[in-house]
Design a protein that fits this description.
globular, 6 helices, mainly alpha
């Protein structure tokens, strides 16, 4: 495996591990504040601050014109993350972290298969085939095993 492939895979692995850390820490915030929405707000405020510092340090300063031609749905990506963070803060103490993560991954795979299949949001089309369906079913089997195991 080349570094051009290995480095992004390692980064995604680390980011995925951080998603697992995020749910229980946000559940603590939700319990203390009495609201998973407040927990998500605090989480996003901290995340926004961290991203602002990283962006300022990067020196990247595009003009506003580059954003003008984007479709409306390009602006709502953060909404999806906000929903997940709030739902995870609510669900983690009720269903457990392993179930939360495996069910979330199953949802991600289902959506990704559909988006690839139709070429949604400018993605290249990659039709669903037997191998991809088998992989998704294995993940679904993993969800069941994690939940009932």
């Amino acid at each position: 495996m080349t570094p051009a492939v290995l480095i992004p895979i390692l980064l995604v692995f680390i980011a995925g591990a951080m998603v697992a850390l995020q749910a229980p820490t946000n559940a603590m915030l939700a319990k203390a504040g009495g609201s998973p929405v407040l927990a998500a707000l605090i989480s996003f405020a901290v995340g926004t601050t961290a991203l602002l510092v990283a962006w300022l340090a990067s020196g990247n300063r595009p003009g506003t014109a580059v954003f003008g031609g984007l479709p409306w749905f390009a602006w709502i990506g953060g909404l999806y993350g906000a929903v997940f963070v709030a739902v995870a803060a609510y669900a983690a103490p009720r269903i457990g972290l392993a179930t939360l993560i495996t069910v979330g991954i199953a949802g991600q795979i289902a959506m990704a298969l559909w988006m690839d299949h139709v070429g949604a949001l400018g993605l290249p089309r990659e039709p669903v085939n037997l191998g991809r369906i088998a992989g998704a079913l294995l993940v679904l089997g993993g969800v069941i095993l994690v939940r009932r195991g």
